[in-house]
Amino acid sequence: MTDLRRALPSVGALIERPAMQALADRLPRALVTEALRAVIAAARAGAALPAEDDAWIRAVESHVAERTRPSLRAAINATGVVLHTNLGRAPLAPAALEAIAEVARAASTLEYDVALGARGSRHVHCAALLAELTGAEDALVVNNCAAALVLALQTFAAGRETIVSRGELVEIGGSFRVPDIMATSGTTLVEVGTTNRTHPDDYRRALSPRTGTIVKVHRSNFAQEGFVAEAGVRDLVPIAAEAGLPLLHDFGSGLMLDLSPWGLTGELTAREAVAEGATLVMMSGDKLLGGPQCGIIVGARDAIDRLRKHPLARALRVDKLTLAALEATLALYREPDRARRGIPALAMLTASAESIRARADAMAATIDARVEPSEATVGGGAFPTARIPSWALTLGGDANAIQARLRNGVVPVIARIEAGRLRLDLRGVDPSDDAVLLSLITAALA
Q1: How many CB atoms lie within 10 A of CB 368?
Q2: Closest CA to 299 of 378, 367, 246, 261
Q3: Distance from first CA to last CA of the chain, Å, rounded?
């Protein structure tokens, strides 16, 4: 019997076919040629042979689509972790997206002072708004919270010592550890207290002529219970003042609104953190604040001015798109209820369990799924012990196979397997994505 694979056409012959020429007019010719080689190689290895032009076209289009698919693309977060670090943390508000588009489409006033008609500074953007919202004297924006801490330590404690509690030398996502990040600034860490108990006197006894600063780190991703004690910022303010030292507070989450009416308690707001009296307070922009990735530093005007003048500030500065998104997000906080409804992360965290169940019931009516109670978490290193009532779609069938199909769909859907069943928690899914999610589940189940 003749092996049809021996009669496979050459790439040159295929590319000259009218149907393939039309395809090469729509797509990059080099990618079409590469795809033809791949399809031919697959056929020689045993894959099904395209029999007609339409089959060749579909095979080539599929290969090109896979080859050109962006590695960074939108996904649907059905894990139940609202601020999921691996999934990009906080989605941006429509106002922030509009601000990005407006600034990106043309020239901007990034470093131009229109009042003076001269060069300006990108560091002025968002500063006044951050001061207004937090009660701080001044503010500076860098590319993330770790960068904010490094810049502050480099400015005030390079070549000197930094006092910090052993109980606050935590590890954050991706195996990064706070002491390692702090050490890159050129300061020497002086650890005080114990893992579970640190007192104000521990800091006093550690003071020396070599001390450059005292640091308070918020333990964002875990909580200590039992026989524990820690010195708060208010305890450390007089100690730092007596020694003439700056007190740096790594505040972390960037919470701007009190969420206790929705059961989320135990975290200070940014305004409350500033009121405690630290020289500088540092926080993230893409966690509970609900904005773009950045590090925000607020505090005393003279301290912020020193940070701005440090050479490292240029290396850690943010771009115009980040500043546009941050300013638009912050502006929403002038009306707290508008911010809660308009910033997606806050809307998801404060949505009623009943509204989430109604969405789940509507989806389950058209697919093979059960609606079951679930517990969501905040994520992003905030409210680590909080469990938020939610509802999930539980799918029948081979959980691993369905999960893989959802992950590899046109829009990746990220869910979790519990007790051998695939569960899609809807708290972290924007309601506007429900129709897309339903179509992706339907395709995966089919």
Answers
A1: 11
A2: 246
A3: 37
The whole-model pTM stands at 0.90
User: CA-based angle 369:374:376, to the nearest 5?
Assistant: 125
Q: Which helix (H) or strand (E) holds 39?
A: helix 29-44
159 forms beta bridges with: none
Please, are residues 391 and 363 in contact by the beta-carbon 8 Å criterion? no
- Can you tell me which residue has the tokens 């609900």? 290
Residues 398, 22: Cα–Cα separation, whole Å: 41
**For residues 184 and 214, is the Cβ–Cβ distance under 8 A?**
no
CA dihedral (397, 400, 404, 406) positive or negative: positive
* DSSP run (H or E) holding 392: strand 388-395
* Strands of 188-192's sheet in order across: 138-142, 295-299, 280-284, 247-252, 211-217, 161-165, 188-192
Adjacent-strand bridge partners of 373:
391
Walk along the chain (446 residues) and give the pLDDT tens digit of each residue.
445 555 677 888 888 888 888 888 888 888 888 888 888 888 777 777 677 778 878 888 888 888 888 889 999 999 999 999 999 999 999 999 999 999 999 999 999 999 999 999 999 999 999 999 999 999 999 999 989 999 999 999 999 999 999 888 876 665 567 788 888 889 999 999 988 888 999 999 999 999 999 999 887 655 666 777 788 899 999 999 999 999 999 988 899 999 999 999 988 999 999 999 999 999 999 999 999 999 999 999 999 999 999 999 999 999 999 999 999 999 999 999 999 999 999 999 999 999 999 999 999 999 989 999 999 999 987 888 899 999 999 998 999 999 999 999 989 999 999 999 999 999 999 999 999 999 999 999 98
143 closest CA partner among 303, 313, 344, 331: 313
In single-letter form, the type of residue at position 268 comes to: L
What radius of gyration do the chain's Cα atoms show? 27
- What does residue 298 show for φ and ψ, rounded to 5 degrees? -125, 155
